[in-house]
Amino acid sequence: MFSKPVSASSSLVAKQGDTLMLSSSFVGSCNLPSSSSSSNLNLRTRMKSFKVSASIDTNHMPLTGVVFQPFEEVKKEVLDIPVALDVSLARQKFSRECEAAINEQINVEYNVSYVYHALYAYFDRDNIALRGLAKFFKESSEEEREHAEKLMEYQNLRGGKVKLHSILMAPSEFEHAEKGDALYVTKSINVEVNFFGFVDSAMELALSLEKLTNEKLLSLHNVAVCNNDPQLADFIETEYLAEQVEAINKIAKFIAQLRMVGKGHGVWHFDQMLLREGDAA
Predict the structure, then answer these.
(1) Domain ranges in the chain?
(2) CA 208 – CA 202 distance, rounded (Å)
(3) How many other β-carbons are positioned within 10 Å of the β-carbon of residue 233?
(4) Which pLDDT score, from 0 to 100, does residue 69 have?
């Protein structure tokens, strides 16, 4: 048994490439039990010469081969903070093409919302009295406006500037003497740049608008990809594309049902189904 504690000093020497060198040294004395045995004598001699030491000297050498020098990196011109008061401080890797495409999509969403609002007003008239269809188109109008506002918020998030364009006048009459008004309309919508195209039914108009909106969203996504903006591409994919496909499918089924029931009493039953939709939730 040791009769006295052993004191130790240690230092770790680090060489380039993570080579660790250890040297040992116990500094102190230890009394071993007296014995004439040569093994005890040899052990006593070895313990007196045994040292442990460790030292570390990184010498600022990289251990992984990757050097990150933040105070040098921030000197890059691309990371300069603008001083002009009319320039966004948050903008980074956000192209003018993406900014313009977002503003165009905002205009698409507001125009579609405007047409849906006109359909809501038409079906809510006292001499039309299809409250379910009125409810459906009012909710659709509000949803498209929310889409526009979400794009506006994203534009500001990325440091762009929202520029609202003109909204085209929507039709106000959706009556057809032979085919009814829930499905069919006689007034075609002819506007600049063929924005809505020519349609001959109210629900078909809605389906055409949803498909048009989907095409515009896909074009916006393509602009993001071409300008190497994965964040914008992910935003469009996450917030819009899946919902748009579901809306197209839903309205397509409505059209199929309206074509089966015809006008009159069948339309009334369809309208009641829309009116009750969502009440259970």
Answers:
(1) 7-53, 96-276
(2) 10
(3) 19
(4) 67
What pTM was computed for the model?
0.67
Rounded to 5°, the CA angle 56-71-69 comes to 45
Q: What letter does residue 280 receive in the DSSP assignment?
A: -
Fold annotation for 96-276: Ferritin (1.20.1260)
Q: Is 110 exposed, middle or buried (0-12, 13-18, 19+ CB in 10 A)?
A: buried
Tokens of 23: 């040297």
pLDDT of res. 202: 83
d(CA 29, CA 115): 96
The total of other beta-carbon atoms located within 10 Å of residue 2's CB is 12
Give me the residues of the chain with pLDDT under 70, please. Answer: 1-66, 68-80, 82-83, 174-200, 279-281
Q: How much is the pLDDT for 280?
A: 46
Cα–Cα dist 78/138, whole Å: 46
